[in-house]
Amino acid sequence: MPHPILYSFRRCPYAMRARMALLVAGIEVELREVVLRDRPEHMLEISPKGTVPVLLLEDGTVIEESMDIMQWALDESYFVGDWQQLVDGNDGDFKHHLDRYKYNNRYENPLSPEEHRSQVVTFLEGYNTRLAQTSFLCGHDVTIADYALSPFVRQFANTDRAWFDHLELPHLHGWLNAMLESETFRNCMVKHPQWKDGDTPVFFG
Ligand SMILES: N[C@@H](CCC(=O)N[C@@H](CS)C(=O)NCC(=O)O)C(=O)O
């Protein structure tokens, strides 16, 4: 029985959100773990832009944006409130400042890492305010927003964990811990060796 094929990279936050959505939806895929400096030819053939995640459906459709994979996988009950606005902010300014905080010397004329870090904190304060009212970003139940944003908040937190832990953002800390300790997140982070053409398929989901 053929399965959709997911090209993925374990530590990529975009791939994490896609894997979580597939897990939550109970969709089993063949997982092909990619090393970004050694991307498989077949992946580049079906998606020349070369980023992960990429999902190839049984009918030949290629879905090559993480949010499109999430939207394909999840049912409408996960689309609640202003999730799209949160994702736009995350994939836009949040990610911009996260990258320049974490990898400051890779960019020409960036602000200092601390200045980029405080721009990210502005977002986190907004999340903390929401999470003071409800357990999840868009209400009392987990939605696409929580799965889409948590891998990026995790990346920010892990850049300097001690500094992050001292921020006065208790609701955000609680939410991030809950997301990272969830079965969904832990299952999405199971390690797989690099996929090579001819390997026995590895199934995920
Ligand atoms: N907009 C894409 C971004 C995906 C992305 O940038 N993935 C990174 C890994 S975290 C990647 O593949 N980078 C390789 C490259 O840019 O060459 C999505 O949402 O899927």
How does this model look, in words?
By secondary structure, the chain is an alpha+beta fold. The chain folds into 2 domains: 5-76 and 187-204, Glutaredoxin (3-Layer(aba) Sandwich); 77-185, Glutathione S-transferase Yfyf (Class Pi), Chain A, domain 2 (Up-down Bundle). It contains 9 helices and 5 strands; from the N terminus they run E-H-E-H-E-E-H-H-H-H-H-H-H-E. It has a 5-stranded mixed beta sheet with strand order 4-3-1-2-5. Helix 1 (13-25) packs parallel to helix 3, helix 1 (13-25) runs antiparallel to helix 6 and helix 4 runs parallel beside helix 6. It is globular, with a radius of gyration of 17 Å. Bound molecules: glutathione. Glutathione binds next to helix 3.
Structure at a glance:
The protein is 52% helix and 8% strand.
Provide the structure class: alpha+beta
How many β-strand runs?
5
Question: What is the CATH top level name of the largest domain?
Answer: Mainly Alpha
Q: List unreliable stretches of 5+ residues.
A: none
CATH topology heading of the largest domain: Glutathione S-transferase Yfyf (Class Pi), Chain A, domain 2
Binned, the helix content reads 40-55%
Biggest beta sheet summary: 5 strands, mixed
Radius of gyration computed on alpha carbons: 17 Å
The DSSP helix count reads 9
Ligand inventory reads: glutathione
Neighbour order of strands in the largest sheet: 4-3-1-2-5
Shape by Cα distribution: globular
The total number of structural domains is 2
Strand content: 5-15%
Q: What is the H/E order?
A: EHEHEEHHHHHHHE
